[in-house]
Amino acid sequence: MGARKKISADKRKEALKTQYFAKLNNVPTSPRKMRLVADMVRGMEAFKALGVLKFSNKEAAARVEKLLRSAIANWEQKNERKAESGELYISKIYVDGAAMLKRLRPVPRGRGYRRIRKRSNHVTLFVDTISKTEKQN
To answer: What pTM did the predictor assign?
Structure first.
């Protein structure tokens, strides 16, 4: 790695130390379905989002709920105190496409006719304190 790349990589790592996030890789759900759930809770207060996700009938909501609990636990671990209601909110959440399993649907006479693409995704969720953003504004 060159010196310029190493410097920018170190800056990125230092910036991540001040942010509180959780990442979920290779979720076997299509990114489109996961984005519906992500859009539902983006910008919402963390404990309110947990309630919304718990009672959502989407399959992806259970995975995002577990991820949000993990992000809250990461915040509590770094700050060495418990999160209070109304203190944390979901600052960023994004869903990226991951590896795709490609299959062929067999048809008569030994041919493969239709391609089946089993999609998966990566979800990254950032939480932040509300008071921190009020001070910046």
So the answer is: 0.85
